[in-house]
Amino acid sequence: MFGLSKEELAVLKRLSTPQKIQDYLDALPQNHEKNGGTCLSPRMALRAQKAHCIEGALIAATALWLQGERPLLLDLKTFDIEIDSDHVVALYKKNGYWGAISKTNHAVLRYRDPIYKTVRELALSYFHEYFLVTDGKKTLRSYSRPFSLKRFGASWITAEEDLWHIAEALDTVTHFPLIPKGHEQHLRPASPIERTASSIPEWNKSDLKI
Is 60 left (phi over 0), alpha (psi -120 to 50) or beta? Predict the structure, then answer.
């Protein structure tokens, strides 16, 4: 299925619920991109045994697709990519409520249970914890509509090259603002204790050989 090998299918089919997918991503080492930026396909990430946010979201979307769900991504965009990175999660739905599966290296921007009536509600749940650890400035500004990977067929799952075309398409899709006009001046920076907690990595770069 999808051109996956028997071994790859065995791994992904075991991830039969959003919770199991999240557990797998949590156990997967962080891709620190030591040799330059990557956007690994699910096959490449499974082989390398590492992933960062969009790579984890692509694995999650593949696992959901194998279970008969739609392979959907959500892009969370900051005010300046040069200052703080955007974040990408895989969307899922249970009984009409949205949740998210997330690969991150910190205590924030993680899994979301399926309790959100709208994608906007879900995106807003990330707002208060999306900040710079240096000064606490909150950086999340917009979110995309649900982005279906079906438009790319299924060849991306087993591609042997980086999926920059998917990342670029996601970046240019319609995004919706999260902050009411004129309200940026009312945003309070994250507290020192929040910044300290957020700075703790799950996977230390120095501990990884990959």
Answer: alpha
| pTM of the complete model | 0.96
Between CA 154 and CA 181 the distance in angstroms is: 40
Report how far residue 6's alpha carbon sits from residue 13's, in angstroms, rounded to the nearest whole number: 10
Q: Closest Cα partner for 55 from 40, 33, 75, 72?
A: 40
The rounded distance, in Å, linking the Cα atoms of 191 and 146 is 32
Using CA atoms, how far apart are residues 25 and 12, in angstroms rounded to an integer? 11
Instruction: Judge contact between 162 and 40, C-beta under 8 A.
Output: yes
If DSSP codes are grouped into helix, strand and coil, which group holds residue 132? coil
- Closest Cα to residue 28, out of 57, 1, 4? 57
Q: What are 130-176's pLDDT values in tens digits?
A: 999 999 999 999 999 999 999 999 999 999 999 999 999 999 999 99
- pLDDT tens across 32-45, in order? 999 999 999 999 99
- Write phi, then psi, for 12 (nearest 5 degrees): -70, -35
Distances in whole angstroms, Cα of residue 92 to Cα of each of 49, 104, 176, 181, 210: 24, 17, 19, 30, 30
- Cβ atoms of 139 and 131 within 8 Å: the answer is yes
